[in-house]
Amino acid sequence: MHLALRFSTKQLMPGCVIHSRFNILTSYSTVRFVGNNYRTTNTWRRSCFLSRQPASGTVLSSTVGRTMDEDAEIDSKSSKFPFPQVFLDWLSQNGLDPAIYDAANDLPRYIRLKPGTEEDISSIEDDLGSELSKLSWLPGFYSLPSEVQIASSRSYQEGKIYGMDAASGAAVAALGISPEDHVLDLCAAPGAKLCMLADVLKDSGTLTATDISQHRLAASRTMLIKYGLGSRCRLFLADGTTFSLLPLRHGPKVEEDKPEAGIGEDITRSYGKHTGSVYVNSLVYGEWKGTKTAKEKKAAKRLKYMEDALDRVGGRESELMFYGKDSGIVGMKVVDVFRSSSLREEEAAVDGYDKVLVDAECTHDGSIKHISKYEQWGWDTFERRFFNAERMTSITSLQLQLLRNGFRLLKVGGTLIYSTCSLTVAQNEDVVRNFLRIERNAELREIRDAKNWPCRSGGLPCTVRFDPITSNTSGLFIARIHKLSS
Ligand SMILES: C[S@@+](CC[C@H](N)C(=O)[O-])C[C@H]1O[C@@H](n2cnc3c(N)ncnc32)[C@H](O)[C@@H]1O
Hints:
Elements: E1 17-22, E2 24-34, E3 37-39, H1 68-75, H2 85-93, E4 109-113, H3 121-128, E5 133-134, E6 141-144, H4 154-157, E7 161-163, H5 166-174, E8 182-185, H6 192-201, E9 206-211, H7 214-226, E10 233-237, H8 294-312, E11 319-323, H9 334-337, H10 345-351, E12 353-359, H11 368-372, H12 374-377, H13 379-386, H14 389-408, E13 410-420, H15 429-438, E14 442-444, E15 456-457, E16 464-466, H16 468-471, E17 476-483
Parallel strand pairs: 8-9, 8-12, 9-10, 12-13
Antiparallel strand pairs: 1-2, 2-3, 4-6, 4-7, 5-6, 10-11, 13-17, 14-17, 15-16, 16-17
Helix pairs in contact: 5-6, 14-15
This protein binds S-adenosylmethionine.
S-adenosylmethionine (SAM) binds at residues 168, 187-193, 210-213, 216, 239-241, 359, 361.
GO biological process, one term: methylation
GO molecular function: methyltransferase activity; RNA binding
Pfam family, one: Methyltr_RsmB-F
């Protein structure tokens, strides 16, 4: 069947694919741009919700396949939620229809199975009291009715399943992890994507994660330990806009100092007047211990003191919150772990990360289910949290800085994914467009798997958008960026 489409050919890139949900996730239709013809196998079920994108944005218009009268109907629609007026105004300014939040209760819940537990699927179904529907487009993911609670289930507590939205899984899949990759997750907490990265890497490569929130990063550490995924990981409490540590491609630099157990104390070098008489050169990391004996606690306290000493001389911008036994840290001197803060571009080009995920801080307006929960928590609380003035004014510049620093740490030939769970153009296409203007050796690349995903094209070539109406998932924007040699 042919559809009347109202966007101009300028708005679509040749080869761009638009998906429309048709009842259930596994059965969606596609509309393809071929020359000047658009074809589909199913009728366009509902209009996209981005009905009033601001003129500056290049996001595909929602007016696809609709008449003017139908658009008028959407424009006058509001949500069933009694949103504060300030939020309605903000949605309007960003071209978003409040009615998208009405989909909150219809969205399925998604889980990811821990690799290797597929044969337990019927016992997991019994435990959850619900059938699981396998997602044909995303390996390891299943959907189930939204009312099923997973956190109290035995399968969850035993680490057989993860609660994770399918769109988040797509962002990780878009990275195209290969065995032996050294991966950086720059905004990692609370760790859903981090765990998937670790599962995909299995027992090869390394995984470095940073986040600026201590309690959220601690939650990520708990997740890694719970699912037995930490052995190749390092977690740093750090600002992702300045983090400068490269992957440990070559293992510990000072093997000969590797202690039998605990933390060594071969003290040889002074940092002079800034630190009093603190000597830190040869203090080396032993194996990570969750629970410690009194002797180990004393040693850990001493290590912390040494790390703080590095802070005082400006040698450390991050705090190591966790490291696994195969992360390369064990046996390293404290100073060596934090040495590379004056990272040189040429060094990163060769020794940088193979893959970087920048799942940036954002306004989270695309987390439909999360926002609907304020129905119970109170809309005053929502307004206070959402419209945190400092956050609102600086969010796009933070996103650009995170993206730029993630790219700086990427090696030439490497892949970076920029994603946010905001539906706005400002936090997605505009940030990427600004970034591409600055970074001449960055190039947007197609996400190959996306042709099978129930997502829409984003407003920049090769970018994609998940949203509740089109994809039956939470909102997520994904851009895949390649680093060329300069
Ligand atoms: C969208 S959440 C990340 C979700 C995470 N990737 C996951 O899958 O569970 C964004 C995170 O960015 C962190 N963040 C905010 N500013 C940051 C900064 N300057 N550096 C690093 N992390 C930052 C927040 O603490 C938050 O945990």
